[in-house]
Amino acid sequence: MKHYEEVKKNIGSLDLCVVSKRRTIEQMMPFYEAGERRFAESRAQELLAKVHEMPSDVQWQFIGHLQRNKVRSVLPYVSCIQSLDSAELARVIEKEAARIDKTIDCLLEIRLALQDENKTGMSSEEAQQVMKECAALPHINVCGMMVMGPHTDDEDEIRRIFMQAHDIFLAFQNQYGTEQFHTLSMGMSDDYRIAVSCGSTMVRIGTYLFEEDE
Length: 214
Ligand SMILES: *Cc1c(COP(=O)(O)O)cnc(C)c1O
Hints:
It contains nine helices and eight strands. By secondary structure, it is an alpha/beta fold. The chain has an eight-stranded parallel beta sheet with strand order 7-6-5-4-3-2-1-8. α5 links the parallel β4 (78-84) and β5. The longest helix is centred in the C-terminal third of the chain and has 22 residues, at 155-176. The structure holds pyridoxal-5'-phosphate (PLP). Pyridoxal-5'-phosphate binds at residues 19, 21, 42, 63-64, 148, 188-189, 204-208.
């Protein structure tokens, strides 16, 4: 758990999501025992296979592209959907959340300029539109945004994108308030230190936490 201790030290009081995709329950439990409760999965099937194997107070985070036909199956178990990427998805989430009488936290997944084309997420304009629509959906609580850094080793480029994300975050906070819009989920194994220096409030780390045991 050396990397874990290092990450905890580097992020201070910021939130950590332990990205547990492709890891076993056995690999995940030491992080639970160390006090972590946020575990993040990117595939519905894998999440569903794990929820009953982990303690019930885990706050599952969904971070992958969520297909509309999977919303019903994952919704009862997740605390936050970090990958809200369309108005259509928001409407399906609202319908299913209303059905089980649950209010679900979501983050707007925002894709920034010059990033890989195949990445999911919305432009900041689309995100503004979805935010407006969600205001009328009582079972969805949009409490921030999620971004991915660019696929590059160029630290200046990563920093540029993360600063841009932080500007967008501040603009949303200006409009909706810091109480409502409190989470900027930004930073993974290779770029979380830069993300933290650019104002991230939550990092999502998988590889770096788990690799030392493999
Ligand atoms: C896999 C994944 C992560 C974690 O990436 P690592 O490089 O393993 O730390 C974070 N966010 C999302 C959306 C992911 O899919």
